[in-house]
Specification:
about 100 residues, 4-stranded antiparallel sheet, 3 helices, about 30% strand
Length: about 100
């Protein structure tokens, strides 16, 4: 398996948690315009903790996503929405269904 991915952990400011949830839900439309993104999940891990998990066929697709509209919008809005910088981890997919 050669797929690669990203896991991004987001910690919202407590008073902005629902704004982060809305931002992530709305980001789906932007991701649909990225042909190299194979899968994309926005998840809630706790009251103020969120995550994004996405996969790509190769590193070029991952790099294109990191340079895309969702990443730009997230970084632009991070100071207002997040308690800390996003934690972005590059991952290798070992197995999938």
């Amino acid at each position: 398996m050669s797929d690669v991915g990203l896991f991004v952990r987001l910690e919202a400011k407590p008073e902005r948690a629902e704004d982060v949830a809305g931002f992530l839900a709305g980001a789906l439309e932007l991701v649909r315009d990225e042909p190299q993104t194979k899968t994309w999940f926005a998840i809630r891990l706790g009251a103020t903790t969120f995550g994004i998990f996405d996969t790509f066929a190769d590193d070029a697709g991952r790099q294109a996503h990191l340079a895309g509209r969702v990443a730009a919008a997230l970084m632009e809005n991070a100071p207002q929405l997040l308690a800390e910088d996003p934690a972005i981890e590059r991952v290798d997919v070992l197995a999938q269904l």
